[in-house]
Specification:
The chain has about 180 residues and is an alpha/beta fold. It is built from four helices and nine strands. It binds 1-O-pyrophosphono-5-O-phosphono-alpha-D-ribofuranose.
Length: about 180
């Protein structure tokens, strides 16, 4: 596959990802037993992770999508999120799980979590496949996290560089030459 030529090395294999996704799904299925949580996938990066995660759950769930970007002000407690596509579901009284591919500074999730709580969600938990802990500036952490990773340029399994590489089945580190040219 030609896009593989742009990958420096594989960081997480398909098998590693699947095992971790299944672990997270088991935990969520236990913790939400008897309830009907609303899963909100944050577009676009999370679409692959969310698709695998939801199919590994054995509880009934509602799936929805939002497209947001933060204004990068983690010190502002609410409302600092630009919504390009809003949730179709009413979050009032719902147990919400936000699904993200990666937490970097944390600004996006910080703002989005506050927004959903302001709208009356009963609870808001965060499920993120990748966590760049060293980059965090906002006071936020994942309730369900897949892998802590170093500050490297990762692509695949939903993550892009200039909209490419989302369809790689694994997560790889992009060659410098690709983004420095
Ligand atoms: C990524 C990721 C989060 C956000 C995390 O999205 O999916 O939404 O950045 O960054 P933060 O923790 O610093 O706020 P991106 O803007 O790359 O959009 P995409 O998912 O559509 O590729």
């Amino acid at each position: 596959m030609y896009i593989e030529n742009d990958v420096e090395r594989v960081l997480l294999t398909e098998r590693q990802i699947k095992e971790r996704v299944d672990d997270i799904a088991r935990r969520i299925s236990e913790q939400y037993k008897g309830s009907y949580p609303l899963f909100i996938a944050v577009l676009k990066g999370s679409f692959v992770f969310c698709s695998d995660l939801l199919r590994a759950l054995d509880i009934p769930v509602q799936a929805d999508f939002m497209s947001v970007s933060s204004y990068g002000e983690s010190s502002v407690s609410s409302g600092r999120v630009k919504i390009m596509k809003d949730s179709d579901a009413d979050v009032k009284g719902r147990d919400v799980v936000i699904v993200e591919d990666i937490i970097d500074t944390g600004n996006t999730l910080y703002a989005l979590k506050n927004l959903l709580l302001q709208r009356g969600a009963n609870s808001v938990k965060i499920c993120a496949l990748l966590d760049k802990v060293s980059r965090r500036t906002a006071d936020i952490s994942a309730d369900y996290a897949g892998f802590e990773i170093e500050d490297e340029f990762v692509v695949g399994y939903g993550l892009d560089y200039a909209e490419r590489y989302r369809n790689l089945p694994y997560i790889g580190v992009l060659k410098r030459s690709v983004y420095e040219k």
